[in-house]
Amino acid sequence: MIDVIVGHADDLTRGLVRSALEDDGCHVRDAASASALLAACEEDAPDVVVVDIALCAREHTPVLARLKQDPVLFPVAVVLLAPAAAPREVLRDLDRGAQDIILTPIRNMDVVARVRAAARTKALQEEFLKRGRAMEDLVYGDPLTGLHNRRFILTQLSALVGSARRHERDLLILLLDVDGFKSVNDELGHAAGDAALVEIAARLKRRLRREDYVGRLGGDEILIVLPDTPARAAPRVCEDLREVVGQKPMVLEGLSRTITVSGGWAAWSGEDTDVLLKRADDALYRAKDAGRNRICGAAFAAPPAPVTT
Amino acid sequence: MEGVAQPRFYFDLGSPRAWLAAERVVEDLGEVPEFVPVAMPEGGFRCDAEIDAYFEDIAREAERLGVLALRRPPVFPTDTGFAMLAATYARQIGKVVAFSLGAFRQAYNGGRDLSEQDTVLLAGAAAEIHPAALIKGAGLRSTAERLRVATEEARAAGVTAVPAVVRP
Predict the structure, then answer these.
(1) Which H or E run contains A283?
(2) Is residue A74 part of a domain?
(3) Residue A31: CB atoms within 10 Å
(4) Is residue A48 located within the same domain as residue A100?
(5) Residue A252 in 3-state DSSP?
(6) Which of B2, B31, B136 has its CB closest to that of A199?
(7) Do A171 and A282 reside in the same domain of the chain?
(8) How many structural domains does chain A have?
């Protein structure tokens, strides 16, 4: 059922539009003023607004602009009721986001046909946006683990480094590598290796905040980005994430097996993204060399060399 | 799925004690808690002298914890209604930690009044939230509903005052 709000100052015209749409099976609300119309939209966003162009143009409550600039209401299709004698205003409002126009005096068939078309276009726009989001998931997601992929996590890390620099905010990264991943693949098969990665991802995600990012860089290497997390908190926070992965065995191909990770963390201290990553990577190597299933922290970045002339 | 969910850190921006806790909660817990804004402002002060004594205590605690020195906001207690809705919106878009730390610091390091919209927008800017989006997001009925639900959930979990940390 199409949900419509009719906005017109004239009771008679409003009633005519309303009854034409109700006869077609639409759910119709109406409003006699611009502010009442906007309030009704805020209350419950309709599929279509049918509004008098004069009501729409009132400068103190510019209905069309308000709807099209609203992050929630912008998808609402707006159909204008306008006299044939106002072509300039109609063209202006069509440019500003109105979907269609019904010339007054109205004919019931016109109202029904244009509202149906507007609702259909809105549904197609929503489908288009949905497909766009699905496409983003494909482009930025790791299909195996459901984590972000390398492209996304590195782009996000660069953005967060920029933000940390602009606002002097803390930023911590943790690079994890699955211990003995090759032996899991060799002994239990690649399906078991995949299942281990899926389980590790799930355990990590459950332990992180909404603002944290976790992505698979490739193979068994995972990058976690924790904004607003100070360096002094890093050892315990990273240790906690290591424990979360390894504290309970996983069932892989019917066999219970404890999978552990090694990790290297680095707190941002003014350097560029690649230097920050390199520091975390060096720390990860130290963790591996020190016997695995442990976390090492990066040394602080060297201050930039003084400029000499 | 194996593993334990992270703890929840409940706070109200009108609480200087919650500010102190927010500055140290990750370090002290050794985990990254989910920041959850709830409407539980501090109150019950009987006179100005009591508020002065309270802030002296907060200043000492700030010094002990090594966080940036307290600068008292001009009005206390103050109306943090809009600020809390903004924090709830920030939580929804995954920026609640940056926003709430920004707002706490505006109030208790910058000495600004969180009942003023500009103060809240400054905190939003520090979290890279566009002012128009923050105003709109805070004004949504769904945001108010989220704040109400979060507050009720906190109460159901036994939280009667903030700051509080609860493990679900």
Answers:
(1) helix A273-289
(2) yes
(3) 22
(4) yes
(5) strand
(6) B2
(7) yes
(8) 2
Summarised one tens digit per residue, pLDDT across range B103-154 is 999 999 999 999 999 999 999 999 999 998 999 899 988 899 999 999 999 9
- In this structure, is residue A109 part of a structural domain? yes
Q: For chain A, what's the residue count?
A: 309
- E strands present in B22-131: 34-37
Which residues on chain A are in Cβ contact (under 8 Å) with B26?
Answer: 229-230, 233, 237
Judged by a CB distance cut-off of 8 A, whether residue A169 touches chain B is yes
Chain B contacts in chain A segment 213-252 (CB below 8 A): 226-230, 232-233, 236-237, 239-240, 244, 248, 250
Instruction: Print the domain residue range for A164.
Output: 150-297
The domain limits of chain B are 8-166
Indicate if A69 and A183 belong to the same structural domain: no
| Chain A 180-209, residues with CB within 8 Å of chain B CB atoms | 199, 202-203, 206-209
**pLDDT reported for residue A301:** 61
Give me A211's structure tokens: 């603002």
**Torsion of Cα atoms, A207 then A211 then A215 then A217, to 10°:** -120
Of A133, A160, A192, the last residue of a domain is: A133
Q: Peptide bond preceding B74: is omega within 30 degrees of 0, i.e. cis?
A: no
| CB neighbours of residue A284 within 10 Å | 24
Q: Which CATH class is domain B8-166?
A: alpha beta
Cis, bond preceding B163 (omega within 30 deg of 0): yes
User: In one letter, which amino acid is A299?
Assistant: A
Given a cut of 50, whether residue B1 has pLDDT beyond it is no
Question: Are A159 and A109 found together in one domain?
Answer: no
Phi-psi region of A104 (alpha: psi -120 to 50; beta: other; left: phi over 0): beta
Shared-domain flag, residues A59 and A15 = yes
Global confidence as pTM: 0.84
Extract long-range pairs of A164-167: CB within 8 Å, 24+ residues apart. Answer: A164/A227, A164/A268, A165/A270, A166/B128, A167/B98, A167/B126, A167/B128
